[in-house]
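User: Can you recover a sequence for this backbone? Please restate the input before giving your answer.

Assistant: Of course. Working from this structure:
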């Protein structure tokens, strides 16, 4: 009887425990799914952190490049300022030389006009003297023939 009782008890317990086992199996399966999802979430989180790290590194490189560009721009601006100053200086020198050349040209032009006037005057005087000498020569010839 005790064996039958034990079997009966076992059977009753088995029937009573069956829903608990099924529920426990479902809980374990749910727990397994949760653990798998947690693992996937952790993997995604790891990938996101890696991407964020790469983005931060890229941003750092971009900031460094921007800094170098700003420094180069500053140097170019300084060079341009020096070039402008130098160009203005050369331009001023050229303007001064041009003004000197213009003054020299005006002086030479004035002297040239004066020289031409003097030459014309002297040519005119030479013409008068030639005429007077010719007339004197003709008079002398006339007097000698007489």
């Amino acid at each position: 009887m005790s064996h039958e009782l034990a079997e009966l008890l076992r059977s009753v317990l088995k029937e009573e425990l069956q829903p608990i086992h099924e529920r426990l199996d479902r809980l374990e399966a749910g727990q397994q799914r949760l653990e798998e999802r947690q693992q996937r979430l952790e993997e995604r989180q790891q990938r996101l952190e890696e991407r964020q790290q790469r983005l931060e590194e890229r941003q750092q490189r971009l900031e460094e490049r921007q800094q170098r560009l700003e420094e180069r721009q500053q140097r170019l601006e300084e060079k341009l300022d020096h070039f402008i100053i130098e160009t203005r200086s050369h331009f001023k020198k050229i303007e001064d030389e041009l003004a000197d050349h213009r003054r020299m040209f005006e002086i030479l032009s004035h002297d040239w006009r004066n020289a031409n006037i003097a030459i014309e005057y002297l040519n005119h005087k030479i013409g008068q003297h030639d005429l007077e000498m010719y007339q004197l020569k003709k008079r002398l010839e006339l007097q000698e023939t007489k």
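That completes the design. Helices lie at 2-145.
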